[in-house]
Specification:
- The radius of gyration is 22 Å and the shape is globular.
- The chain folds into 3 domains: 5-96, NAD(P)-binding Rossmann-like Domain (Rossmann fold, 3-Layer(aba) Sandwich); 105-312, Mur-like, catalytic domain (UDP-N-acetylmuramoyl-L-alanine:D-glutamate ligase); 322-463, Protein-Tyrosine Phosphatase, Chain A (Alpha-Beta Complex).
- It is built from 14 helices and 23 strands.
- 31% of the residues lie in helices and 27% in strands.
- Helix 1 (14-25) packs parallel to helix 4 (94-103) and helix 10 (340-353) runs parallel beside helix 11 (376-382).
- By secondary structure, the chain is of the alpha/beta class.
- The chain has a 10-stranded mixed β-sheet with strand order 8-7-9-6-12-13-14-15-16-17, with helices on both faces.
């Protein structure tokens, strides 16, 4: 029997809010609770007519819902979660709910990997939409072509971002192990999420499980330039095709170079020229993301001629190398980069796009991993393309054991020893003041954080005389 009333714990998370929208479209009565209901998700849910209860309390479960979906932000000791358990209410995790209510009898296309999965998922969803496939999708960022991070769609395919983070307090498996993809894309494997993975081998085990769940009649597309990715795919039951920049790749990008507003590149398929493309995003890493998406859609039968115009119309994902504007001659960009590899790739992309401008990198080490010293040395190597680096003290550093804490002061000292100009700031207010003192016309200011950085982006733009920017 279908539930009528579905309650979401942790409804203001990006994925949970998208699920709320999907369920609302399907006619269910939706309620939800969260500890911190604030824009943009609070206003998004308000616009859908979904009531958000502030704080977690057992009385939020009155009237008793037919089903509860529990987000992975919820811990077992949460009072509302305890009430769900004590009353034995029917419950699902987010990926279980996506399988039931979004995928259903359709086929899923799942993108996983340490880096690039959000942009690749958005690319794949857009290409399918542009060629008339009407896909459903769920992505961990706002896809600008849709101005949303989800779509129900009526076509045969659902595109999902496969997250390696754990599922829920009652299910510690990676989220992506709940999906059974018809086609899987694996973009990369590196150590991350130090709060739940003790070492790289455990990360590798998780991705082995991901490729292992693709059945024999399915298909895997994986980044073949990385030996570790090839190793993980070695024992997959499904057929594997590799993409990349090297000659050994079945899908290969060549003749690659920056163009006005993006990148030009040519695709070879099994050694033969397949098509020439323009991607309106900067960076080699984004060419690889686009190559994976193009290969995936080609595996479903699409030809390059139909995809060239579609790719050129891709608008990107919010907060993925997104331009906020140019104020007083300073171009302000924002990116989600936080892992050292992502920081380096993003800086390289900006350098490719703006080779003659001074590049000012502004970084907040905010994730559970970047607040830990495991990446202390890699960060010191990640900023080599920047001309000036400003680093904030990690927020909530007290949550990490003292012997494991990352040091922004040490990073600045290491960068200085390498001959780079770098400055440490204990908080965002003082960082903003220092940034405004140092910026000059012609600069490119790149703000990097996986959070809102205390609203640094709109505050910077306003101080430079620009219009208000939504962070």
């Amino acid at each position: 029997m279908q539930p009528q009333h579905i309650h979401l714990l942790g409804i203001c998370g990006t994925g949970m809010a998208a699920l709320a929208g999907i369920l609302k479209e399907q006619g269910f009565y939706i309620t939800g609770s969260d500890e911190q209901a604030y824009p943009p998700m609070s206003t998004f849910l308000e616009g859908l007519g979904i009531k958000v209860l502030n704080g977690y309390k057992p009385e939020n479960l009155e009237p008793v819902p037919d089903l509860v979906v529990v987000g992975n932000v919820i811990r077992r000791e949460n009072p509302e979660a305890q009430a769900v358990l004590s009353r034995d209410l029917p419950r699902l995790s987010l990926p279980e709910a996506l399988n039931r209510f979004l995928v259903g009898t359709r086929q899923s296309l799942v993108v996983a990997g340490t880096h690039g999965k959000t942009t690749t998922t958005a690319l794949l969803a857009w290409l399918l939409q542009a060629v008339g496939r009407d896909p459903g999708f769920m992505v961990g960022g706002i896809a600008r072509n849709f101005n949303a991070n989800y779509r129900t769609g009526q076509g045969d395919y659902v595109v999902l971002e496969g997250d390696e983070y754990d599922t829920a307090f009652f299910d510690k498996r990676p989220k992506f192990l709940h999906f059974r993809p018809r086609l899987a894309v694996l973009t990369s494997i590196e150590y991350d999420h130090a709060d739940i993975y003790p070492d790289l081998e455990r990360v590798v085990q998780a991705f082995r499980g991901f490729v292992g769940q693709v059945e024999e009649e399915g298909r895997i597309l994986a980044w073949g330039d990385a030996p570790l990715v090839r190793q993980v795919c070695r024992n997959a039951a499904a057929a594997v095709a590799f993409y990349g920049l090297k000659e050994a790749a079945a899908w290969r990008a060549v003749e690659m170079g920056p163009a006005a507003g993006g990148m030009n590149f040519t695709v070879f398929r099994e050694g033969r020229r397949w098509g020439k493309f323009f991607l309106p995003l900067l960076g080699t890493h984004n060419v690889l993301n686009a190559l994976a998406a193009l290969a995936a859609v080609a595996e479903l039968g699409e030809e390059p001629e139909t995809l060239q115009k579609a790719l050129a119309a891709f608008q990107g994902v919010k907060r993925r190398l997104e331009a906020a504007g140019e104020y007083q001659g300073v171009l302000v960009l924002e990116d989600f980069a936080h892992h050292p590899t992502a920081v380096a790739a993003t800086l390289q992309a900006v350098r490719q796009g703006y080779p003659d401008r001074r590049l000012v990198a502004v970084f907040e080490p905010r994730t559970n991993t970047s607040r830990r010293r495991v990446f202390q040395e890699p960060y010191a190597q990640a900023f080599k393309e920047a001309d000036l680096i400003l680093v904030r003290e990690p927020p909530d550093l007290w949550k990490v054991d003292p012997e494991e804490q990352f040091s922004s002061r040490q990073l600045v000292a290491d960068l200085t020893d390498r001959g780079q100009e770098a400055h440490y700031y204990p908080d965002t207010d003082r960082l903003l003041a220092g940034l405004l003192e140092k910026l000059r016309p012609g600069d490119v200011a790149l703000i990097m954080s996986n959070g809102d950085f205390d609203h640094l982006l709109p505050r910077l733009c306003a101080a430079l005389g620009g219009e208000k920017v939504q962070s």
